[in-house]
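[job 4471] stage=fold_predict status=RUNNING
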Amino acid sequence: MAACRFEVHHRVPRCLLGFFDRAASGELDGAGLQAWFDWEEEAFRYGVDPDISRENLVSLIETSAAPIPASEHRAGHSQSGDFARWGRLGGLETLRRYGKPWFSLLGRRRWGRVSAEALDLYRVELTTKAGAA
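[job 4471] inference complete, writing structure tokens
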């Protein structure tokens, strides 16, 4: 019988640090307010007071860690919709960084409508344009 693999689960996830940092560094403009709203939403989702200090948040995250079986860990994230939510956030970040043409090209590549070479050529074009700017 294979040994049961354990993973560390954080009841208060480490991703909250990123939300906290974005909210703390934002200006009082549209993007800064959106960062604060995102931070508050995630903080409330995990039962964390949004007015917590960064040091206390780090401590809270560290003390919330517990080893659980890998299958249970993944099943818990899957059932709560975390994987879909995290994927969406990653997709939005990719869209923000590289723009709609790159994002749609990735979709075409996924469905086999664009070759890896075409994707690579476009990536080179993007980096060349970014370097020239």
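[job 4471] summary: Residues 82-110 form the longest helix (29 residues).
[job 4471] exit 0
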